[in-house]
Amino acid sequence: MTDAAPTYQALPLPDRADFDDAQMLEKAGQFYAHMRARHTIRDFSDRPVPKQVIEACVLAAGTAPSGANQQPWHFVAIRDPAMKAKVRAAAEEEEQRFYDGGGGDAWLKALEPIGTDASKPHLDIAPWLIVVFAQRWGERDGARVKHYYVPESVGIATGVLITALHTAGLSVLTHTPNPMKFLNGLCDRPDNEKPIMILAVGHPAENATVPAVAKQKKPLARVLTTFEGES
Asked: Which of 12, 16, 118, 157 has a CA positioned 20 to 30 A from the CA of residue 88?
């Protein structure tokens, strides 16, 4: 952020939910059902998506909490076919090195059930690519300002963005070629920003598939530990 240093000021909570226990459980269940219908795909339709939808979803991402409220993220949305082709070409070059052995045997073995390879046609076909950048530092009054909890903050915002896109009826594929420094040049972003992810965004193709293993989610007992104390 580049504005003047803010000072602390307490405001009354502007929004408040007041659900009883049954309503909370119902809404939590509805949200779980909604998110269970989210699928990562690699087969996109070229059906256009209005820019206004992307903008609304990015606005939602911007509501995410962040360390010291520094909001250390920047999103670059790409619809231009020529620019998407450049992203694909550069990403596939890095991916080819990875699949030729750069990723290591264990990593490549772990990816086998997902069915991926170095070819990334979705980067051309999906109507939008959203590149997520993490701002390692910012500026205020001409001076460098360190950002705190950057990976955590950007990760939360990206999760909100993916959820917003799903809620809008769109499918998303997360893509992380390594290294990704080429994205700074293509997207004209400064050196204080680190590209961390490409999101391919659009509608699924008629013949879209998902890997069977992707539907195998860990049960609650494996992802939750509770300490309830005495009632």
From this structure: 157
Is position 30 within any domain? no
Structural domain range at position 54: 39-216
Query: Over 70: is that where the pLDDT of 4 sits?
Result: no
Burial class (CB in 10 A: 0-12, 13-18, 19+), 136: middle
DSSP 73: E
Cβ-based neighbours of 26, under 8 Å, separated by 6 or more: none
Q: How many residues does the chain have?
A: 231
Handedness of CA 219, 221, 222, 223 (dihedral sign): positive
pTM: 0.94
Residues contacting 85, CB < 8 A, separation 6+ = 124
Task: Give how many domains the chain has, as a whole number.
Answer: 1
Say if 28 falls within a structural domain.
no
Confirm whether 6 is domain-assigned.
no
DSSP H helical segments within 98-219, as ranges? 105-111, 122-125, 150-167, 182-187
What is the amino acid identity at position 64? A
Asked whether residue 49 is domain-assigned, the answer is yes
* CA dist., res. 204 & res. 75, Å (int): 22
CATH number of the domain to which 66 belongs: 3.40.109.10
> For helices 150-167 and 21-36, what crossing angle results, to 10°?
80
